[in-house]
Specification:
This protein has helices at 46-60, 64-68; strands spanning 11-20, 24-34, 72-75. The protein has 80 residues and is α+β, with helices and mostly antiparallel strands.
């Protein structure tokens, strides 16, 4: 578990993020941190960045069951 001293100081807010691949767009809710020294730009802690990378990797692998447990999944529909 992460110790409090390693956490980025600031206000924590929930944000929706979209992860896009060739087949899917996945919408997940993650925690962003609004640092007190620069409130104009929310940032993400390493666990959140790693989670977003995993979402992208699972979307590339088309692991729909895993993705649906963690967010909303939109699938590309070919119109040709």
């Amino acid at each position: 578990m992460k110790s409090e001293s390693m956490r980025i100081p600031g206000k924590r807010v929930k944000r929706s993020r979209l992860v896009q691949t060739e087949s899917y767009v996945v919408s997940v809710v993650v925690e962003a941190v609004i640092p007190p020294d620069d409130p104009s730009e929310p940032c993400y802690e390493s666990e959140t960045v790693n989670f977003l990378k995993e979402v992208e990797e699972r979307a590339k692998q088309m692991d729909l069951d895993w993705l649906l447990q963690r967010g909303r999944v939109y699938e590309l529909v070919a119109t040709e």
